[in-house]
Amino acid sequence: VDEATCGLFLWSLAQAAGGLVHSFGQLFATRIVLGIGEAPQFPSAARVVSDWFPPRKRGVPTGIFVSSSPLGSAIAPILLTTLMIWLSWRWMFVLMGLAGVILAIIWFALYRDPHALPLDHDERRYLAGGEAEMAKPVTRPGFAEWRRLFAHRSTWGMILGYFGSVYLNWVFLTWLPGYLTTERHMDLMTSGIAASIPFFFGFIGCLIAGWFSDVLSRRGGSAVTSRKLPIVLTMLGMAAFTVPAALVESNVIALACISVVIFLANASSACSWALVSAVAPPDRVASLGSVQNFGGFLGGALAPVLTGYIAESFSFVPALLTGAAIAFAGAMSYLFLVRAPLPRDDDAEPIVVVEAVA
Prior knowledge:
With 358 residues, the protein is an all-alpha fold. It contains 14 helices and no strands.
């Protein structure tokens, strides 16, 4: 059983268990288990794309699987609110968990590793993008190989860059309804509807970014550069449009700017996952994806706390501007640190990344 199936099944059990709890401690425990189950999903999806699509055609499928996140954020308020009204909040958790179990069973029944299938030589060369050595089955890396990822500058650039991208995205993901009610003085119903609009743009952003990334990749040149350039541009746009979103008086203009930010944030996320398969050798795609995703989790964990603290101490204006600055720093990390793919062998000289300064 692969990591995606196990993770989704664990996530589903934790989600369903959330409807059976009777204390905050129990609910907190289910949330921890849910996070553990969720963690392997995107790295596993990146590995699936790497296995089933040639290098210069991975942007579109990557954009498709990444688009599930903003689409879920857009429809969840409507769907979950309906379930709570018709049934109860407990049944909402249980039904979501049941849906996850069904999806896990479907994935386990249908998905097959291409290396386990009787593909002919031409089919394997196509999936490898014409590179014969890539068409061979890959081995699962051990802990030593995973640890060596941190010896390369590109790895740290992806960690820091994805931290900045996810940080700003999660500022809006967690605080947008509260921001619209407290700072923009919208009523509860209006803010709920308004808060879902930007994430539909995020869904579109993922799909467009995946296609655009493939276009750049097929035009030739470095695969790393063609995947990295859209990330840098979209993150710079995220930072730029957050500034007027924080400063303008018009609610319409502010919401339009936020929609652009979410569009670009999810476009950046799609390109970031496409970058993984361009930087990592085939046997390290999931490992590098997990490492980059760890940086994103740190950004996603810090964003709600720091944003809330700044907003309470001052206002949402410096909180949003802080997010813009962090996104800009993340763009610079991708631009200047992610330069070359990781070596396919282990005899490359490690790169010194951080030097302590007294």
